[in-house]
Amino acid sequence: MESSLTLPIGTTLDRFIMRGQEEFPGATGELSQLLRDLALAAKVVHREVNRAGLAGITGAFGAQNIQGEEQMKLDVAANIRFIRALAKGGEVCAVISEEEENMILTGNHHAKYVVAIDPLDGSSNIDIDGPIGTIFSVYRRLSSPGSEPTREDLLQPGRKQVIAGYILYGSSTMLVYTAGKGVHGFTYEQSLGEFFLSHPMASLPADGKIYSCNEGVSNTFPAKVNEYLSLCKERGYSSRYFGALVADFHRSLLVGGVYLYPATAKAPKGKLRLMLECNALAMIAEQSGGKASDGTQNILDIQPLDFHQRVPFYIGSKKMVDEIESMHRS
Ligand code: AHM
Ligand code: MG
Fold first, then answer.
1. CATH number of the domain that 81 lies in?
2. Which residues line ligand 1 (CB under 6 A)?
3. Average pLDDT of 107-120?
4. What phi and psi, each to the nearest 5 degrees, are found at residue 241?
5. pLDDT tier at 56 (50, 70, 90 boundaries)?
């Protein structure tokens, strides 16, 4: 048996992307470069997350985002890092971000791609050293390269994503993405400064025994959702909730389960943003055997009308999401 001292070092994200590119004759390498730009920004944010307490970047920034939510210093720092990386990389002509009201034009009018990003999700975990994440979606623009990008370039259903992914800053930092051919996870090796392939062709279990939601506000959930939660309890399922979507979803990806954020009294349309949080995870779920729904339809089929549009969100093991949908129908 091979000693752990001599195990091969593994496949870096860069090498994996290059191999993937070779499968598409005629590929120009722009998407590969875009992914590398995101990975570079992820490394910088990883560093900032890890020393946040020392570098004085925990706590509130002192301003609110356009939804009136308090911005944390790390929210603002991550937003700058990712947008700068995408603008400098040159492959993206426009970006929308949870932290920005309007579309940001990068100045690269000749670029073919647009990006929707939540630079730092689960902000309330920053100051307690809990897991947080970055969520991103890449689309091919609809307008002609060379012209000024339009709102419609971004307002595309999740089905049109060419790449979707997330970065989880947890007990280790992981980058998970799909380009439509399965889902692959990479773990960050800090001392080498590289993401290494650790979860090739991840498969989200078809069924699970964990449900994940903010039960503290369940008295304002729709009755059908509470019926489902009662069923989970009758079956002896476990409840787990980080309060950070990426971390809660990542658990489902690895061991199965369902995450629920229905409409509540405080968030009558749901809390999570279709374009900035839900679509990317929905594509990853589908590509790994899972499913995402708003209770009545597949998240990926919803035509967005607004960059910051919210939806009720159910995601995870297919059987569990199907059951939630059928309870909504009944
Ligand atoms: P944020 O984008 O302001 O961080 O909010 C999104 C987060 C999700 O990551 C998480 O699942 C959810 O909000 C938690 O909300 P709540 O505190 O209402 O349970
Ligand atoms: Mg968010």
1. 3.30.540.10
2. 69, 98, 118, 121-123, 214, 243-245, 248, 271
3. 97
4. -150, 110
5. low
Minimum CA distance residue for ligand 1 atom 2: 121
Q: Which of 167, 199, 231 is the last residue of a domain?
A: 199
Report the Cα–Cα distance between both ends of the chain, in Å, rounded: 56
Instruction: Please check whether residues 170 and 219 belong to one and the same domain.
Output: no
Give pLDDT, residue 79. 95
β pairing state of 194-199 and 238-239: unpaired
Q: Are residues 289 and 246 in the same domain?
A: yes
Average pLDDT of the residues in 185-199: 96
Beta bridge partners of 167: 134, 175
Unique residue bearing structure tokens 């195990």? 7
Tell me which of 121, 134, 168 to substitute to probe ligand 1's pocket, judged by most ligand atoms within 8 Å of the beta carbon: 121
Q: How far apart are CA 214 and CA 217, in angstroms?
A: 6
Higher pLDDT, 77 or 115: 115
Tell me how many domains the chain contains.
2
Nearest protein Cα to ligand 1, atom 11: 245
Cα Dmax for the chain: 59
Ligand 1, atom nearest to 242 Cα: 11
Characterize the bridge pairing of strands 70-72 and 173-178. Answer: unpaired
* Residues in the chain, overall count: 330
Residues 168 and 216 reside in one and the same domain: no
> How far does residue 92's CA lie from ligand 1's centre (Å)?
27
DSSP characters over 17-29: HHHHHHTSTT--S
Question: How do residues 121-162 score in pLDDT, each as one tens digit?
Answer: 998 898 888 999 999 999 999 999 999 999 999 999 999 999
